[in-house]
Specification:
By secondary structure, the protein is an alpha+beta fold. The protein folds into two domains: 12-99; 101-179, no CATH class. Helix content is 18%, strand content 37%.
Length: 180
């Protein structure tokens, strides 16, 4: 993923951090301001006030993807020190991590349409071992990624990765796979 200075008017997907479990609150504030954001969530059972109930919680702590411009985000990052850009590793200073539009859309579709997606940190899966594929048909139609055998799972999975951040894997039917 190459860093290119975004046009001030062009919206891009930024990888952001919202510290101290404030991801959902931050997302609500962004949504209220009309800014699109995405947090990978999982459904779990939580106990609140002695009662057990199902709730959606972030799959990865502190992570939020935001589709906006730096100018539009500056009031939020300036007002709340817990809401910060994630910066690119090994690059020049102050280069926010930006996800290409197509890659982010595929990532969101896999997260939302996979029955039980698996999430991996950057070093957990070796994408070099996989085959580049595209899904044809079904809810993930058009998604591109890497076909891998993930440890602990029988079936092969489509893995969509966001460099230096997170990978998501979803089981796919072999008849829907097209090798690129």
């Amino acid at each position: 993923m190459q860093y290119t200075e975004p046009d001030n008017q062009q919206k891009v997907w930024y990888v952001m951090r919202s510290l101290y479990r404030t991801e959902l609150r931050t997302q609500a504030l962004l949504q209220k301001a009309g800014i699109r954001s995405f947090i990978p969530v999982k459904e779990t059972i939580v106990t609140s006030g002695g009662k057990r109930k199902r709730a959606k919680v972030p799959s990865v702590s502190n992570l939020i993807f935001v589709h906006s411009t730096q100018k539009e985000l500056s009031p939020f990052t300036g007002a709340d020190s817990r809401f910060q850009y994630t910066f690119r590793r090994g690059g020049l200073s102050n280069e926010p991590l930006i996800v290409p539009e197509r890659q982010m859309e595929d990532f969101i579709r896999v997260c939302e349409n996979a029955g039980r997606p698996l999430y991996f940190s950057p070093g957990e899966v070796n994408l070099a071992k996989g085959t580049r594929i595209r899904i044809i048909g079904g809810p993930l139609n058009g998604c591109e990624g890497i076909l891998l055998k993930v440890s602990g799972a029988r079936a092969k999975r489509l893995v969509v990765s966001i460099q230096d951040t997170l990978s998501v894997a979803a089981e796919v039917s072999p008849d829907l796979i097209e090798v690129i």
